[in-house]
Amino acid sequence: MITTRPTWLYKLVDIANLDSIKSECLNVFNKHYSNAFGNRGFTFTIIDRDILRAEAPSYIQVLKDLKLYERWNTSVFAGTMGNNRYEDSPIHVDTSDLNTPCYSLNMPVVNCENSYTLFYKSNTPGPIAPIPEWITDAASYKAGGIFQEEDCREIGGHNVEHPAWVNVAIPHRAVNDNADMRLIICARFYPEVHDLFNDSDN
Ligand SMILES: [Fe+2]
User: Fold this and answer.
1) CA 172 to ligand 1 center in whole angstroms
2) What pLDDT is stored for residue 149 in this prediction?
């Protein structure tokens, strides 16, 4: 339980066997979730963890190596169909509830060299509307919400080619500056992994 949100935006993580993880996860996407986008330009799709256990052994191993496997709660594919800078991924928080997970362990899957997570400071104290249902089939995002472009200013970002912990309680969006589908895989943990980060980081 925490009483205040950490304010850091992201922390880069060095992941062993990243090339294996990328190819395993791309195979999982192509085999099981290739229709995830529907007619949308952006998607979150919850991945069946049993599929990852069976078909993405390098991904599972890194969760074990990081001593996160026992707390591994959910993984999702977050993807864009192509260039998406402003239209397809509204500025949002995944959660505004202090009691729900606020960190995401993100790893690249494909075409992430020109893709970024951008972070924003909003003039409003919280989101102004729920995350639209068209953007996600994930009930777990009900605690989140979106912000208006004109209320926000960009305060940072990171290239998603490098794995990172992302503070998804800070307003953010995905951007992709190339024409091809970009995918990352995002993991969430419960109980939340506050213990991984120092109090001085908050
Ligand atoms: Fe998000």
Assistant:
1) 6
2) 93
128 Cα–ligand 1 center, Å: 15
Domain presence at residue 166: yes
Domains held by the chain: number: 1
Q: What is the CA(58)–ligand 1 centre distance, in A?
A: 24
Residue by residue, DSSP assigns 98-114 as: TTS--EEEEEEEES-TT
Bond prior to 125 in cis (omega within 30° of 0)? no
Residue type (1 letter), 21: I
> So what's the pLDDT on residue 199?
58
In a domain, 3, yes or no: no
Q: Report CA(6)–ligand 1 centroid distance (Å).
A: 16
**Mean pLDDT for each consecutive 10-residue tract of the chain (202 residues)?**
75 95 98 87 88 98 96 92 74 77 92 95 90 61 82 96 94 90 93 77 56
Q: What is the pLDDT of residue 200?
A: 56
CATH code at 73? 2.60.120
Range of the domain at 88: 10-190
The whole-angstrom distance between residue 197's C-alpha and the CA centroid of its chain comes to: 18
pLDDT for the residue numbered 191: 85
- Whether 5 maps to a domain, the answer reads no
Q: Is residue 198 part of a domain?
A: no
Please choose, from the candidates 45, 57, 61, the residue with its C-alpha nearest in 3D space to the C-alpha of residue 137: 45
